[in-house]
Design brief:
12 helices; about 375 residues; 4-stranded antiparallel β-sheet; 6-stranded antiparallel β-sheet; 13 strands
């Protein structure tokens, strides 16, 4: 079955059979499960046959006699844990001890769907690999294609493509090891932002203001695989803006109550003030929107994404990164921006699906 073959409708459009993929084996697993639960709930509210599936565990732990398109959505999935999961523990808890990042029954279920809604974040979700697998299966999915997703996941490569289009902080990509840690700590200008080259949700991100903090951040980088971006720290206001269907949504300003916009401040209710539309002059809004669109096009993205900026007091937006599958949790930014534009959550989910189906038909 493919979109257009369904005969029943919701009253708003065609009823589709949709698999929402979430979870996976990523530091952003908890965030992804929350996104997936909210998306699945919204799509069911519109009458779609919707199955929520954990990419890593698959059918393990589910009732084999229960239709996954009728199974209840676990309430605990909607809450984001305060800390990133222990992935070794997650892997060890799967009965299927194969090295596959895709759990049993996942691809079989996806083949039954009209479209797969990717509520995945981080490795195996945003890096283009699951997109490539679904392309080979001939199953349409939401968001950007495999190549542009892979590019956007790499912060260094994204900055290389965007540098001629927008202003970005000075940076260097390094692989941190025990052998070069001290040299990097001596040579890196402070203050500096230390971040994994291919992770999201601010997991592993540190702002180092002195050598001791820098050494600690570099040591953490080794634990996260070593591939790291060392970025010039820019002082300013944190403004993020989403692109949907080639148009910028209203921007949103992030004001953490303590520290910076790290993992906990992102996903714990009340940890940060989020103001949308951002209280900035119209010319700043336009400048940020155009910068986001230039990055979106330079990387070759489609459907939707969210770009992150630091805006200095003179209104210059410094591009930090762009997220191809931004969060859809209760505290996530894209749903807030969409709401400011008059798009409610279920409508946003359906719009992402419609645009993605058009993108897949066009080969994007």
């Amino acid at each position: 079955m493919r979109p257009g073959d369904c005969e029943s409708t919701t009253g708003r459009g065609i009823v589709m059979k949709i698999v929402v993929l979430a979870g996976g084996l990523s530091p952003e697993r908890s965030v992804s499960l929350s996104s997936g639960a909210m998306v699945a709930q919204a799509l069911r509210s519109r009458g779609h046959q919707t199955a929520l599936m954990d990419l890593f565990f698959g059918t393990e732990g589910t009732d084999g006699n229960k239709d996954p398109f009728q199974a209840p959505i676990p309430e605990q999935f909607k809450r984001v844990s305060r800390q990133a999961p222990d992935l070794k523990q997650v892997r060890a808890s799967r009965r299927d001890a194969s090295p596959s990042a895709i759990g049993p029954g996942v691809l079989e279920l996806c083949r039954q769907a009209d479209v797969v809604f990717l509520a995945l974040h981080g490795a195996c979700g945003e890096d283009g690999r699951i997109q490539a697998a679904l392309d080979l299966l001939g199953v349409p999915y939401t968001g950007s294609g495999c190549l542009s997703s892979a590019i956007a996941m790499d912060k260094d490569l994204t900055k290389r493509l965007a540098a001629g289009q927008v202003v970005t902080p000075k940076w260097q990509a390094v692989t941190v090891t025990e052998d070069n840690l001290e040299q990097l700590a001596r040579d890196t200008a402070l203050p500096a932002v230390v971040k994994p080259i291919d992770s999201g949700s601010s997991i592993g991100v540190s702002i180092a203001r002195d050598r001791q903090q820098l050494c600690a951040a570099l040591e953490q980088s080794i634990l996260l695989g070593g591939r790291t971006v060392l970025e010039e720290y820019i002082s300013g206001r944190e403004i993020q803006i989403a692109i949907l269907d080639g148009q910028a949504l209203p921007s949103i300003e992030i004001i953490p109550k303590t520290g910076f916009y790290d993992y906990e401040n992102k996903y714990q209710p009340g940890a940060a003030e989020e103001v949308c539309p951002a209280p900035i002059p119209p010319e700043w809004e336009e400048r940020i929107a155009q910068a986001a669109l230039r990055v979106f096009r330079a990387v070759g993205l489609s459907v939707y994404a969210r770009a992150d900026f630091i805006v200095t007091p003179d209104g210059t937006p410094y591009f930090l990164e762009i997220n191809t599958l931004p969060g859809m949790t209760p505290t996530s930014l894209v749903p807030q921006e969409a709401a400011a534009a008059g798009i409610d959550y279920p409508s946003l989910c359906e719009r992402i699906i419609r645009s993605s189906l058009e993108a897949r038909k066009a080969g994007r």
